[in-house]
């Protein structure tokens, strides 16, 4: 190749890694001299020698300038070095170069891909970065380390010609002080952890022999607030975000999942560390979020770790891990002499296992205020008898929540960072707590101090109340609603209860009654009797010892009454009256059996004709309808757009509006009549033969995204609970236009037998609202329905948004359609609401309860209908004595 072409190729290779021609030229010339014009040597390994030489040359130049600057006393030494460096190369180019160097060194060869200029890493790097890098270049062939931290303790010792020993010493300084502030990548596990904060990044490819001995990291605790100078440094490098280009290799460990040491190790109480990271007690060195599995203290809720207050300060248990991976800080071991053992993970990699004392919980610090006063920790505990546990990658957890914010909660800020949110939370908490402290006695007398570590073991009486298994002793919740609060303006409420400020800010309420008054004593007692009842609603009224008796938490979260149980948030507003919340109930997204109801979801009960094993993907797109279309006459009920088909919907609406025009069946022994205890049963009044939708389900071969799975996917519309201005109490409305046939929500509640409902109703006389719906599709069947098969749904105490749907005679915009999902038994089914027409945003959603306002015998009094429909069945009723029943079909 011609000389010119070779030179051009060299320039272009260097350019690819960000080194401009003018910086290459002098070095290249020199090299050619030194190598006696041997281009082959220079071209070898993709111009590695050339790149090295450039770096070396520049480092030496910088070193000279550093020496020159040494005497200058006006600038702080480190700044001086950096400034000088910037002067030499311009900030952007220098940082760019540094990044390229990172890549070169990591793989021991030049990268062939270019790095984007707008790389967020392209910030001026501190001097120690260069020092470490260059020294490793010279003395340690492949390992690489980068750190944004500057060694401020001994700035004068910084010398770009530092020998390896000096470097290690300097690194020790960094290790020793930057608790939880670094990220290390090793060749074995090289998943890049993007660092949220400016703490910097250390990337390490050390082999066993090169690893820093544990003695170099003498005091890793991870819990102490950072020394101020470190905090300052963090600020300085605030813009530093290692980009994905700093990831060197694909992770070998499954992202998001880490093998449970319990599975892989003879010792289940172990920390997992990669093989090439000898156990030193310095968990800075772990390049992946550290998972600590602790058997003795694991509180598992539905298979998930829970985030909650730390059990203690995180240090006292002797299992504090340090390391900052994308904003998470696990807390470093107090006892660094803990032993280590080896095992092999599922990827065949050797893992170092560090023993953990049995009785210590494992806490991960996930965010904190800037100076460490306020912290959010995640505690992860593990019960020894639980066999298979995968500790999720904390980064993946954050990512998942961030995705959720984007998708489910419709937070549209694409750059949302959960870690940042949590840090803001800590900071705000700290700021507010300082504000309170400064505002003196006035507040302290009227409101209790709230410690961030609320003792969650002390459950509120409402929690207890809701968990009362026996609803007979349940305090009627409606009785605490309308008159149980006195309201003030939001600002007054804030002043009154600063400890609950964030809640009261939002809701602007305070209670004028004590918890006991509001909640009654029965359930308090029940709660004591039932210590196993788990924590329910953190926003429920509280009676914990940390709150004064007159301090009541909001009954509901106005931002999302479902408390995250639905895929969408369901907000709550009252623009009409001062009633801030509906009466207390527990939001559940799916039906739950109360006690005796017979609901059998077993796979074995689903016969061959009841599922589509041979389907694949979307059943709706198949030319031949599958077995699941059988219930709907060989045609699916849904359109490709997920709406109920016109004809099917028409029929359902007609059945609802004119039931007398449709087929009925009559029981020989009607369970409904049977349930009227103390009365001779009347003859069966007949049951409508209902149309059903049958959805595909888990036993089917199709995908979860199959078009014949609508109701089971849950609420997807934007809904809002609001206070109606027509005297109907709370109602439900849509916040978006809904086309005809749209699935809105399911009617969800406790599954009760009719007997149970009857007993419950008999004991809850005087309740303003009741929320029962009969499930009567199988009634009138040839066989006599057993009591435990005659079911209803009661949403009074446990329910979802559907419990707010008000009644409208005749022309309601919703119709309920039975849906078969998990069981072919039609004595149990889902009751789903679909729009009967196009519904505009902000329209109230209504449903015809099917009330016979003339039924004077019904045990539950009917309300006076205010539906406003021209066809209201209760129009004439105003002159009559009331005494009618609310019976929902
Ligand atoms: C299933 S709840 C609906 C939600 C209820 N409005 C609330 O505030 O919780 C049924 C109760 O709402 C009230 N309601 C529903 N529809 C009504 C209507 N058309 N007119 C008057 N009250 C109605 C009645 O008190 C009824 O017992």
Automatic annotation (TrEMBL):
Residues 611-714 form the Pre-SET domain. InterPro entries: Pre-SET_dom (IPR007728), SET_dom (IPR001214), SET_dom_sf (IPR046341), SUVR4/1/2 (IPR025776), WIYLD_dom_sf (IPR043017), WIYLD_domain (IPR018848). GO terms for molecular function: histone methyltransferase activity; zinc ion binding. The keyword Nucleus applies. Keywords: Chromosome, Metal-binding, Nucleus, Transferase, Zinc. One of its GO terms (cellular component) is nucleus. Residues 65-123, 204-225, 250-269, 436-560 are annotated as: Disordered. Pfam families: Pre-SET, SET, WIYLD. This is Uncharacterized protein. Its main location: nucleus. Residues 65-74, 456-473, 548-560 have a biased composition (Basic and acidic residues). It comes from Stephania cephalantha. Residues 492-519 have a biased composition (Polar residues). SUPFAM superfamilies: SET domain. Residues 436-451, 533-545 have a biased composition (Low complexity). It is found in: Chromosome; Nucleus. The keyword Metal-binding applies. Residues 717-850 form the SET domain.
